[in-house]
Amino acid sequence: MTVSSPQGTTKVATYCYQCVAGPDLLKVKVEDGVATAVEPNFDAEDVHPAAGRVCVKAFGLVQKTYNPNRVLQPMKRTNPKKGRHEDPHFVPISWDEALDTIGAKLRGIRETGLLDASGYPRVAASFGGGGTPTAYMGTFPALLAAWGPVDMSFGSGQGVKCYHSEHLYGELWHRAFIVCPDTPRSKYILSFGSNIEASGGVCGIWRHAAARVEQGVKRVQFEPHLSVTGGCSAEWVPIKPKTDAACMHALIHVMLFENARSRLDIDFLKHRTASPYLVAPNGFYLRDPDTRKPLVWDLKTGRAVAFDTPDIDPALDGDFIASGLEVLPDAELVTHEGVAVRSAFGKLLDHERGFTPEWAQGICDVPAATIRRVANEYLDHAEIGATIEIEGRALPYRPVAVTLGKTVNNGWGGYDCCWARTLMACLVGALDVPGGTIGTAVRLNRPANDRQSSAKPGVDGFMDYPFNPTDKENWISRPQIRNANRTLVPLVANSAWSAALGPTHLAWMQQRHGFESFPEPTQPDVWFFYRTNPVISFWDTPQVAEAVAKFPFVVAFSYTRDETNHFADILLPDCTDLEGLQMLRIGGTKYVEQFWDHQGFALRQPAVPPQGDTRDFTWISTELARRSGILDIYNKAINRGAAGVPLKGPNYDFSLQPDRAYGVEEIWDASCRAASAELTEGAEDHGLEWWKEHGFRTIEYPRLQWYLYPHLVDQGLRFEMPYQERIYRIGEELGRRLHESGIDWWDRQLTEYRPLPEFHDFSHLIKHAVISNLGGRDEDFPFWLLTARSMQYSWGGNVSLQMVREVAANVKGHRGVIMNPTAARKLGIEDGDLVEVRSPLRETRGRVVLRQGIRPDTLLMVGQFDHWITPYAKDFDVPSMNALVPMLMDLTDATGSAADIVPVSIKRIGGTQ
Amino acid sequence: MTRYAMVVDLRRCVGCQTCTAACKHTNATPPGVQWRWVLDVEAGEFPDVTRTFVPVGCQHCDEPPCETVCPTTATKKRADGLVTIDYDLCIGCAYCSVACPYNARYKVTRDTPAYGEGRMPNEVKRADPARIGVATKCTFCSDRIDYGHAHGLVPGVDPDATPACANACIASALTFGDIEDPDSKASRLLRENEHFRMHEELGTGPGFFYLWEKKQ
DSSP character for B134? Predict the structure, then answer.
């Protein structure tokens, strides 16, 4: 647990996983029982991808522990009226009273039924930070697993604050819940709004810094404002907001029509994608009538043959006359004899022909010459034909990559940009190969800790994908949760993550009004939330507050008072980061840019005693399980691995007895022993004390696992590019099912299910959607309001920490609204002036920060503030765009997400302070 | 001879302020006092704009102006290049703060807890009354360097003997070391890269070098 330090104090090994870019392994300096400092864990220097370094957010953990504004004992609301302006009159209560109250509610639900009259779970739960709360909530996941149906569809930022389209389409196309460059081997990166230096964590920053200096990578940043990442890039291209799709189409046009075909990776396109598949007249593949395999045109024999016929040379492009079967939606069959067909690649050419750089220039405000040059530079760096040896195996080496930021790849245009990015990789054979555009993790496919194993053979030579059914017999017509994810979004699959990746705003919107032909909207009987503050972090935050205020019983795991627990009935103060005990799986490939040569586990252990009467989350979970009468299934869930590590394996068994309430250390001691045994095939069974001393334990992780390409080759599989026959089919089927049920309010979303993305001016589309729903004139809202991640704050739940506030202030924009000086001058606005920023929904106020690094038609509000309860943060007086962005069906894309963008006006209302 | 210096690679720095935070932890500086911090510098006019992140702090000059003006000899130059302040001798006149061209010196006149009146346990533990009413600044973590020398460690190589900011940097942008030692990483970086020092024209001889481009 401790080692000697220069000052003779102790250092405790633990981890920080406050954001998705973690975990960071660190040490806490403890002097006489008081945590005084955080520092890197240099014991992990040879194991961790960033040599054991720690993100700035982790340095807030000392203040987080001792923050005088913490909630330090359970509290209950005594004012039954809930509202923004109603004082909850929280009063302290004992843990027994708090847990008995919750336990009674839960027991009552089990007696009444887990589902309500509308078929929705009576218990709901919301978590923040892209799943990272699980690294702090001990065995609570086991409690949820034991409970049965829990509605996790009330979003706290998902869909508008995440890389939503990338999550869904990325998993479909290359098992890439997150997509990133193979940075250490890349030489040319096109970044469309990906603010990796603010969101990539220590591993992302470590890798990109090394790439810039040691391998001279050139990164071109397309973004309306000069972000931290733009500042660190070789070139900044100030593109008009939400027009990235046009630019990317034009880049593809240049590659396809202004360069010799030999500059593309023809072999990759022919044999590792569906480019040669023949498309029949109705838009679906032409298939072999017997095997139903898609056909390709074999140049050797001059006839159409099944795609997997040995020793063929499939034609990439061309029009052919062929016969075969076409399978339409709902398995309707059409037999074709001697019909004109075109290859998928040919369809692509037809689709992209009109997207010239000159066309794109008029939409995205990027000079045609720049688009042309960048496209050619991308090809110049692709090194078609090159190979690299990874662990003894020769793989293609394509050092070019494309990345997308969150406002680019969610909402309208997200499909287009994700598709274009993946296609650009395929054109040069750079998809999931060394140097190229690669994936990091899976969350919708299974198993979740192994991308390769999740890529199982499916139909038509592609990876299988767990689409939610759209056929007549199996379509889930009655939503299982309040955001209707499996009913409306076939791509969202059915994993533990699928609820949070559905159209989460629909759950909130339905609290105001129901949707036609849908079950009656209901409120959850009990709503838990942890490490999230959706009344601040969602869109149209006053509407979220209005909905939460109506929830009958809200349990908030609380660090401080905040804007969401303002509406709670019970506050439960859990041990924070440096006080609790938990084991976490680390290593492999994860999230943003975590690529490890190791895998294993790390321990989060109490560096200092809990403050006040806060309790370990595992203790709270066990007590809730006991008091709600599900202790036995809760223990069985822990045994199965619901708390992170299965307690029984081929060579070991540390299972808990079902009927006993175990102590916190007992549970994690068993987990430690199981983790040791799992890593060593039963050879080791180190208990909690060993892990406290050492902090982490790893074994090697093969680098070949970083890339999907070799696995696809071994399986004889192809990437599902460029033509989206499956997307087209499920969209048609989904439309039929919805219309059969009398639902036409999802029709706009159905238009996105095209085999090749149908271009729209998404900038115009979004503005029109906002104004047509809320009123106003185009000319009244001449600016685009955007946001950008703050590394110091993102996901951290750390707005109440003085030190974080202090150091973040060194990064421009944390104190107001960033605006271009020329645009400001025209409106008589000077640096520091108080301004009102108004969207068609409502207005907010803040101070102007003038910066040259932003387009004149764009405003920027960094992070998410606007707090009115959270201690310390409520005095920031810094605006947030969240209150200005409406929740609208017209802004929702087919995946159920919308973009963080809204048209606004700005006017001066006061001078500098 | 030894000359400790900080080498900053401007191509690597992302302005994350991890060094700022690490310094605050290690040296227990009060709110508003940042011995190490990173400037966010914009240059040019839209659309031809650059944004650069520049770590700053005491430059540990060869000819420190702060030493020259100090009326009590509290500020001294060590043989290994570090500029130090003897809090027992400092009278808090702040001449040094005015003289420093790098805006590197601070003086706080009262205890300022992070959250208003009450001090948190970590603040109680780390409180140092000797720093009230006197000049303070980056020490290059001289206590760690001295500890390292006493225990056979190499500053700039061994974490326990290296300034906290350099240890903590998540971009490997800060390299601390002895630039009189040709084998140190700091020396190698200076040999291989174009570099400058801030306000070189003032003749202060800063011990802070900024790399900006590989030598041709």
Answer: S
- Per DSSP, A195 falls in state -
In which residue are the tokens 């001295």 written? Answer: B146
Query: Coil, strand or helix: which one is A362?
Result: helix
Closest-CA distance, A433 to chain B, in angstroms, reads 25
Q: Which two tokens stand for residue B36?
A: 């190490």
Spatial distance between the Cα atoms of A535 and A128, rounded to a whole number of angstroms: 12
pLDDT at site A1: 47
Overall average pLDDT of the A348-357 stretch: 98
Record the pTM. Answer: 0.97
Cβ contact A803–B17 (<8 Å): no
The radius of gyration of chain B from alpha carbons, rounded to an integer in Å, stands at 17
CA distance A328 to A80: 56
φ, ψ for residue A15, nearest 5 deg: -135, 160
CB neighbours (10 Å) of residue B143?
Answer: 13
Backbone angles phi, psi at A299, to 5 degrees: -70, -25
Q: How far is A612 from chain B (nearest CA, A)?
A: 13
Indicate the burial class of A396 (C-beta count within 10 angstroms; 0-12, 13-18, 19 or more): buried
Residue among A218, A647, A231 nearest B49 (CA)? A231
| Cα separation values, A420 from A92, A409, A432, A462, A567, Å | 55, 11, 15, 19, 44
The single-letter code of the amino acid at A466 is P
Q: CA nearest A823 in B: which residue? A: B46
Q: Which amino acid is at A823?
A: A
DSSP A722: S
The answer to whether residues B184 and B177 touch, using CB atoms and an 8 Å cutoff, is yes
Decide if B9 touches A, using CB distance below 8 A: yes
Closest CA to A253 of A394, A128, A359: A359
Count Cβ–Cβ pairs < 8 Å, chain A vs chain B: 165
**Hey, are the CB atoms on A34 and B122 less than 8 Å from each other?**
yes
What is the DSSP secondary structure assignment for residue A431, as one 8-state letter? B
Task: Provide the pLDDT for residue A158.
Answer: 81
- A703-716 burial, b at 16+ Cβ within 10 Å, e below that, comes to eebbbbbbbbeeee
Q: Under a CB-based contact definition with an 8 Å cutoff, are residues A880 and A902 in contact?
A: no
Spell out which residues of chain B touch residue A811, defining contact as CB-CB under 8 Å: 15, 17, 40
Rounded Cα–Cα distance for residues A884 and A881 (Å): 5
CB–CB of A495/A518 below 8 Å? no
Question: Which candidate from A213, A230, A806 shows the least CB-CB separation from B31?
Answer: A806
- What average pLDDT is seen over chain A? 96
Quick one: closest CA in A to B56, which residue? Answer: A810
Each residue's pLDDT tens digit, A771-780: 999 999 999 9
Determine the Cα–Cα distance for residues A805 and A825; give it in Å rounded to an integer.
Answer: 30
Any A CB within 8 A of B118 CB: yes
Q: Is the pLDDT of residue A3 over 60?
A: no
- Which residue among B18, B49, B123 sits closest to A226, beta carbon to beta carbon? B49
Half-sphere exposure (CA, 13 Å, Cβ side) for B125?
19
**A37: nearest CB among B18, B26, B173:** B26
3-state secondary structure labels for all residues of A613-676: CCECHHHHHHHHHHHCCCHHHHHHHHHHCCCCCCCEECCEECCCCCCCCCCHHHHHHHHHHHHH
The H or E element that residue A304 is part of is: strand A303-306
Say if the Cβ atoms of B32 and A806 lie within 8 Å: yes
Query: C-alpha distances in angstroms, B82 versus A559, B76, B141?
Result: 42, 8, 10
CB contacts, 8 Å: A803 with chain B: 21, 24, 31, 114
Q: Taking all residues of chain B, what is their mean pLDDT, rounded to a whole number?
A: 97
Contact call for residues A171 and A165 (beta carbons, < 8 A):
no
Q: Per-residue pLDDT tens for A869-911?
A: 999 999 999 999 999 999 999 999 999 999 999 999 999 999 8
- Gyration radius from chain A CA atoms: 27
